[in-house]
Write a structure and sequence with these properties.
- The chain is of the alpha+beta class and 593 residues long.
- It has 19 helices and 25 strands.
- The strands form eight sheets. The protein has a seven-stranded mixed sheet with strand order 5-4-1-6-11-8-14. Strands 16-17-18-20-19 form a five-stranded antiparallel sheet.
- Helix 14 packs across helix 18, helix 15 crosses helix 17 and helix 17 runs antiparallel to helix 18.
- It is elongated, with a radius of gyration of 31 Å.
């Protein structure tokens, strides 16, 4: 039996048989194909010679009948920005909550065994168990993994089950009292992100080339025999780390073909809501469209909200979140301060820095910045790219840019004092740092700071966070962005900061100094860079500990920063014992005295 045979049988079950022509009209198959399927259905005992359904058909219908559903609702919905604290499944369309609509549609066809896999903001979905009697399955790894893992947690419930994405609005009920075969739903529309295509045999196959595939809806139905195969594959793939960010559809493949048949959903019968604009297009009056961010943009540019388009979230930064949008043909970037970030930086001081940078051709073009809450709007540079820390030519240009900044000797009214910042960050921690030898390392860092205070230095505007991601190459020229930590400081600190984010070894840091100075650095500058590497390493490790209190973790990055603190204290002390520095320490001469 193939899909055509089952479709024709289902048509006769639901509407009866009158003649071949009517069956052909209802199924869009030719009379010849209808005739072939009817002969097969009679020969295999599903129809009698009068085209009436048999007891074999009734038994098959009972065995293949849908019994349950699994709704996947664990995702973070990062692309929904500026909607950020509401799970996609709780968005309202025409005053109806998405996931509630899906549950009600399942109830309409008699399906009451419903399992909902939850993750992001899972506490907001607890009400579903009381209101609808659904079972909640908790995916605590939702931030690191994708829907393949989510579905694996519900693998015991796949038999005769619908698998349903929680963020799709179905115009009409996509579920049925009876199903005859396993299927996966696609749209006739093409999608750049899809890796499935419907071939001439009406099979879903994996796309090997870069062309668009059929839009993947994420809705499926699995008969028991297919569910057992998918369950086995799901559990096997879930064990492998390389599938952490894989969608659940990967478990449907047998070779390069999908195990279930294709079900093509036409028109806008299934509307996936992935972005703010998806929701706006579906329901322009949805209350969920109300957003502080959209209101701010509207006020800054003096345009109605509907004139703000091409809205999308970019990768989260270590301190902030970023949202791209367009006004007319001009693209812009809205920076939204990340959780806890306003305690780490002074936003008014940052606004003062941008004022000092005006007209200097050193940074991006800022349209708006608020010194109270840290929201910032800048022009978005298409085709810009961050510095490649392994590309020596690019790194050299970045060092030239840093030196240009320092030589301008720009002035602001605040300073960046790393040891003072360290003390502030330590006081923000709810409990002591997790490194067992922290107090010993901290003592060594304070020792380095005392020596730095005894040596000559200058104070100019420094970026403080000139990491490779904050150097953007636009039209082959580097620019520094994100000045939220900037202040008056000693220039070698910027060399140190670039180094530790790039994960440079001591040898690479020595090369970096030569790039910046244009020659081998003096022992004084070498000591300063090493000392600032050590101090910054401890500073950013504590910064990471503070951010982790808000669920923002950096894992290995924090450990590497702490290692810099320990190892470069040793390197700095070795340089400190050279005759040049011993002489400076004894003289007590300071350039800023």
């Amino acid at each position: 039996m193939n899909k055509r045979d089952w479709v024709i049988l289902a048509t006769i079950v639901s509407q009866g048989y009158k003649n071949h022509r009517i069956i052909a009209e209802k199924t869009d198959y030719s009379i010849g194909l209808v005739n072939a399927s009817l002969r097969k259905l009679i020969s295999q005992g599903y129809l009698d010679k009068d085209y009436e359904v048999t007891s074999k058909t009734q038994l098959y219908m009972e065995q293949s009948k849908p019994k349950r559903a699994i709704i996947l609702a664990a995702g973070t919905g990062l692309r929904m920005m500026p909607i950020s604290r509401t799970p996609k499944c709780l968005l309202k369309v025409n005053d109806e909550v998405l996931i509630e609509r899906i549950i009600k549609q399942l109830h309409e066809v008699g399906i009451f065994e419903i399992h909902v896999v939850v993750g992001y903001e899972m506490e907001k979905l607890e009400f579903l168990s009381n209101k609808f009697g659904v079972e909640l399955i908790y995916d605590h790894d939702f931030a690191r993994r994708d829907s393949l893992h989510s579905l694996s947690l519900a693998a015991e419930h796949l038999s005769n089950a619908y698998i349903v994405p929680a963020s799709v609005w179905f115009a009409k009920n996509p579920f049925y009292i009876n199903e005859y075969f396993s299927w996966y739903a696609i749209s006739a529309y093409l999608d750049e992100e899809s890796y499935l295509r419907l071939n001439r045999k009406m099979e879903l196959v994996y796309i090997e080339d870069e062309t668009p595939g059929n839009s993947m809806i994420g809705l499926a139905y699995l008969l028991d025999k297919d569910a057992q195969l998918v369950k086995k594959e799901l559990l096997e793939l879930d064990k492998k780390r390389k599938y952490n960010r894989e969608s659940w559809e990967r478990a449907l493949f047998v070779g390069n073909k999908l195990l279930p048949y294709a079900r093509v959903m036409l028109g806008q019968s299934a509307y996936e809501i992935n972005t703010y604009e998806d929701l706006r297009q579906l329901d322009s009056y949805s209350k969920d469209l109300r957003s502080k961010n959209i209101s701010l943009i509207s006020q800054v540019f003096r345009v109605p909200p509907q004139d703000i388009h091409n809205i999308s979230a970019l990768m989260k930064g270590m301190t902030n979140n970023l949202m791209r949008f367009s006004i007319g043909d001009e693209p812009y970037l809205l920076r939204i301060p990340g959780v806890g970030s306003n305690e780490l930086t002074n936003r008014q001081q940052e606004a003062d820095v941008y004022e000092a940078l005006k007209g200097k051709n050193l940074t991006d073009e800022v349209v708006y910045i608020c010194g109270e809450d840290g929201y910032k709007i800048a022009k978005y540079w298409e085709n810009s790219r961050p510095c490649d820390v392994e590309n020596r030519e690019e790194v050299g240009l970045c060092m030239e840019h840093l030196r240009k900044l320092h030589e301008m000797k720009l002035q602001v009214l605040h300073s960046f004092l790393p040891m003072e910042k360290l003390h502030i960050y330590e006081n923000l921690l709810s409990e002591p740092p997790s490194f067992t030898d922290y107090e010993i390392t901290r003592g060594k860092i304070h020792e380095l700071a005392r020596y730095l205070d005894m040596l000559p230095k200058e104070e100019v505007l420094c970026h403080i966070d000139p990491v490779s991601d904050n150097f953007l190459f636009f039209e082959n020229e580097p620019y520094l962005i994100d000045w939220e930590y900037a202040g008056m400081s000693d220039p070698p600190i910027d060399i140190a900061m670039f180094s530790i984010y790039a994960d440079y070894s001591k040898e690479r840091i020595d090369e970096l100094m030569e790039m910046y100075y244009g020659h081998e650095p003096s022992q004084l500058n070498r000591f300063k860079v090493y000392a600032y590497v050590a101090i910054a390493g401890l500073l950013w490790s504590v910064w990471c500990e503070y951010k982790s209190q808000f669920g923002v973790t950096f894992g290995e990055y924090a450990i590497k920063q702490y290692r810099y603190a320990r190892s470069f204290h040793k390197h700095a002390m070795e340089v400190l014992n050279t005759p040049e520095l011993i002489g400076l320490l004894k003289s007590g001469v300071r350039l800023d005295a």
